[in-house]
Design brief:
The complex is a heterodimer.
Chain A: E1 3-7, H1 11-23, E2 27-31, H2 37-42, E3 48-52, H3 60-69, E4 78-82, H4 87-94, E5 98-101, H5 106-117
Parallel strand pairs in A: 1-2, 1-3, 3-4, 4-5
Helix pairs in contact in A: 3-4
Chain B: E1 6-11, H1 16-22, E2 34-38, H2 47-53, E3 59-62, E4 73-76, E5 82-85, E6 91-94, H3 106-117, E7 121-125, H4 134-142, E8 146-150, H5 159-167, E9 172-174, H6 176-185
Parallel strand pairs in B: 1-2, 1-7, 2-4, 3-4, 7-8, 8-9
Antiparallel strand pairs in B: 5-6
Helix pairs in contact in B: 3-4, 4-5
The chains are: A alpha/beta, B alpha/beta.
């Protein structure tokens, strides 16, 4: 089963993504902090990561940069998501592999996962 | 209730899992609108109506400003706006102060619906962690409608329905398993 790790401080997003992705046959883990990002991801080794921009502690950009500098974790695709109009620029700045504008729907969520891990 | 003209469902923490269990049980032929107001943060728009839609054949949509209220449709309150029912049976969205620390506030929708649908209204309060919805249910009773709650013992967070049970003369206390069939009986 493919594994998805979602980072977001919005509990509603985490709850909805968990139900939707479990329905779609994925295993999912969620977190609401970017603190100790490397340890969090090393403990799960997901197939894809969703990273919110406004994440407590170091924030989405720094967290993504740290992942992309890590020898083992840099190959895991990171999808940046935000309600910010500049989500594409933020994703580029962070070094993410893709982006998703909030609000997004179920199809967009499933499509971007399929595009990056299948 | 005979001739139900609207059902409004309010909930907060722990209410989504109830809705996901109830929706598949609903008759596709329901003739009244179901209006859902659950507390949620901005940013989850689209996902919630999309997810609810995956559990029912009934049409599910997020409410648009000034939209007429049609039967057989499940309406979901958008995040960050109060949802009001107008006398001409349209919705209006309002960005005024939070009520009970919440926007949308369940009280606002219950109270405005009570004044419009009167004895032909049923309102159901689900799991949640504050007392939003309690005053609204009182209004529903004042106008002659049906006040319903999820059994607090079956609620993930019992405070909201428990407060309603304490302060309002509730018509029916429903287990999660019985909510769907009860709604189907409101014809």
């Amino acid at each position: 089963m493919k594994k998805v790790f979602v980072f977001d401080d919005n509990a509603d997003i985490l709850e909805l993504c968990t139900i939707i992705l479990e329905d779609a046959g994925y295993e999912i883990k969620t977190s609401s902090t970017s603190n100790n990002i490397i340890d969090q991801v090393l403990a799960y080794i997901p197939d894809i990561i969703f990273m919110d921009n406004w994440l407590p502690d170091v924030g989405g950009i720094e967290a993504t940069r740290a992942l992309k500098k890590h020898e083992t974790l840099k190959a895991i695709p990171v999808i940046y998501f935000s309600a910010n109009n500049d989500v594409k620029s933020l994703a580029n700045e962070a070094g993410a592999d893709g982006y998703l504008s909030k609000p997004f729907d179920i199809q967009e969520l499933e499509d971007i996962i399929a595009k990056h891990i299948n | 209730m005979v001739g139900c003209e609207a059902l409004v469902i309010g909930g907060s923490a722990g209410s989504l899992e109830v809705l996901l269990k109830v929706l598949p049980i609903l008759d596709n032929s329901l003739t009244f609108p179901i209006i859902i107001v659950i507390h949620r943060k901005h940013g989850s728009d689209s996902l919630l109506p999309d997810l609810l839609s995956s559990r029912t054949k009934l049409k599910v949509k997020e409410v648009d400003e000034k939209e007429p209220i049609n039967g057989g449709t499940i309406y979901v309150a958008p995040s960050d706006y109060h949802l009001l029912i107008e006398q001409d049976r349209t919705f209006s969205l309002d960005y005024s102060e939070k009520v009970n620390y919440s926007r949308p506030a369940i009280d606002v929708t219950f109270q405005t619906a009570a004044e419009v649908y009167k004895t032909k209204l049923a309102c159901l309060l689900l799991s949640g962690s504050n007392a939003d919805g309690v005053l609204g249910l009182k209004s529903v009773k004042t106008w002659g409608g049906l006040a319903l709650i999820q059994d607090p013992d079956s609620a993930q967070v019992s405070y909201m329905p428990a407060q309603a049970k304490l302060h309002v003369n509730i018509d029916e206390i429903l287990s999660i398993e019985s909510i769907g069939e009860f709604i189907n009986s409101l014809k």
